[in-house]
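From the methods appendix. Each design record in this collection lists the tokenized structure first, followed by the designed amino acid sequence. Records were kept in a plain field format so they could be parsed without special tools. The example shown here is representative of the layout used throughout.

RECORD:
FOLD TOKENS (149 positions):
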């Protein structure tokens, strides 16, 4: 675990962490495009291997079981989790099979970063400016995602 934390810290920054979890199952997160600290393939492989070893010891729902549940609510915040949240919502890269998230509950800064990653920085800034003007202390944002069927 100490090795995984050390490797994760080496590549983590304000909007990215290479390790995420869904229902206590650890996952590797590829950095977003043009990330300032890309993870070399050798370190990515080591992180994935460490994650696999740790996941074998965890008592949790499998990703296959989780994928059968419709209407999941994702509760996550802080800018460092924005890349992982975006990949869970957009790409389906993090989980195979893909989990079906219907509602996201996060803070407005993280929501703006997710929009930056999904649609570009202008949309994220507009969202953040609007939410901060209308409710400066708003801690959580909820929105519904159209289910892909």
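DESIGN:
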């Amino acid at each position: 675990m100490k090795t995984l934390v050390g490797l994760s810290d080496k590549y983590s920054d304000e909007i990215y962490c290479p390790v995420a979890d869904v229902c206590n199952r650890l996952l590797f997160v590829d950095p977003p495009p043009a990330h300032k600290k890309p993870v070399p393939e050798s370190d990515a492989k080591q992180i994935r291997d460490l994650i696999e070893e740790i996941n074998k010891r965890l008592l949790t729902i499998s990703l296959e079981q989780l994928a059968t549940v419709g209407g999941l609510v994702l509760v996550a915040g802080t800018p460092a989790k924005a890349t992982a949240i975006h990949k869970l919502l957009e790409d389906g890269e993090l989980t195979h099979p893909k989990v079906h998230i219907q509602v996201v509950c996060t803070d407005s800064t993280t929501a703006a970063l997710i929009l930056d990653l999904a649609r570009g920085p202008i949309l994220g800034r507009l969202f953040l400016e609007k939410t901060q003007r209308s409710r400066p202390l708003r801690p959580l944002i909820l929105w519904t995602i159209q289910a892909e069927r």
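APPENDIX NOTE: The radius of gyration is 16 Å.
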